[in-house]
Write a structure and sequence with these properties.
LHPL6 protein; four-stranded antiparallel beta sheet; alpha+beta; 21% strand; 141 residues
Length: 141
């Protein structure tokens, strides 16, 4: 099994994969914001939520639905900021995962990653990291 990466490149490939996996798991889990509402603990992320309030018209009151799930549609995400955050974070996670998997393949295949390709991949990874880290800006209501 020949490699086109240096020792630093192999370390970068494995760290890239771990960071991409952590970003993707964080994107899919609904635990970005934790709190309580109507004396129940609630949590939500960009497109998932747990224990959320709904209006019960038969009893004319707000009740808590104690389950986790995705929003019914893209438009059901509470605000435009959260919808933008969902798209941007998903794109960032996709870029990070693409570069990480390419780097891991470079550990097994010789001449897959040259110095120029490594620099371009690092730039793409930087952009992916910027996208996946930008979800915390300007999204609170």
């Amino acid at each position: 099994m020949a490699s086109s990466l240096t020792c630093a490149g192999v370390v970068w490939a494995f760290l890239s994969f771990l960071c991409a996996a952590a970003s993707c798991v964080g994107f899919f889990m609904p635990y970005w914001l934790l709190g309580s509402q109507l004396e129940k603990s609630v949590s939500f992320g960009t497109f998932r939520r747990c224990s959320y309030p709904v209006r019960d018209e038969s009893r004319q009151m707000t009740v808590m639905v104690e389950q986790c799930g995705r929003y019914a549609s893209f438009q059901a995400i509470p605000s435009a900021e959260w919808r933008i955050c969902t798209v941007v974070t998903g794109l960032g996670c996709g870029l990070l995962l693409l570069v990480a998997l390419t780097a891991l393949m470079g550990c097994c295949v010789s001449e897959l990653i040259s110095r120029t390709v490594g620099r371009v991949a690092g730039g793409i990874q930087f952009l992916g990291g910027k996208y996946s880290c930008s979800e915390g800006t300007g999204v609170s209501r």
